[in-house]
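thoughts on both lines:
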Amino acid sequence: MTTELPANAAIAFQGHRGAYSHLACQKVFPDQPVQPCTSFVDAMRAVENGMAARAMIPLENSTAGRVEEIYRLIPEMKLHLVGEHFEPVNHCLMALPGTRIEDLKTVSSHPQALAQCTHHIENLGLQAEAMLDTAGAALSVSHGGDRSRAAIASSLAAELYGLDILDNQFQDVLGNTTRFIILSGEEVRPAFDSKKAYITSLIFRVRNIPAALYKALGGFATNGVNMVKLESYIIGTSLSASQFHMDIEGHVDQRPLQLAIEELGFFAEDLRILGTYEAHPFRASRQFRD
């Protein structure tokens, strides 16, 4: 997935220690120190400025959908996408030691986590409070001394902040999974190996001509290249200019993909290849295909 890093090279992520991004860092880079950051922008800038070697950034969740902010930030950053990681998300409802579920009145967490637990929250009649990240919510509950407050976070956050887990599967849908992307300040492209699967990610805008998107994507069909994701979003303040984020199966050193991208370039503006990286094994699982 990525080249080996120096022992002191930090992995930046958004949130407090114990966040799901922290868990993802531990899975992918178990021997590297982590650098918690206040925001996604701060985590990405830490890599841009050389203060961290990589950034672990959530891009989408199987229950709550895409993290809109990240799609808008990526074009503004001079970073390269060098890997992906799929992390199972097991939300825990936690509170101060000795608290009972019937004592609770409010529950706090990141908006994405709250969205992934909506039905459980409503069934308990709790008031949801949005916070910047899941682990930060757990930290806040641990410092508050209020037994009517709960947080939704990881089991690691409960361990770090001394909270009791009242429900260790609080998410509405089992199999909840978040896809993380790994960003680097330098391009790290794996050598092509026919025995491995790869993903190539890119961003572009289409030219203002009739059927531009249809024509831009035609080269992928004619060259037998499988497009696995196409996300569109409005950029800037204009409602007429759309940016597209595309994930494609294949390595940029493969001729069919080169031809498809070349054809895309005839109809696209600001075409930028974000990176080519090994596909995570989760993509081959039945859970991903279903």
The longest strand covers residues 268-278. The mean pLDDT is 92. DSSP finds ten helices and 15 strands in the chain.
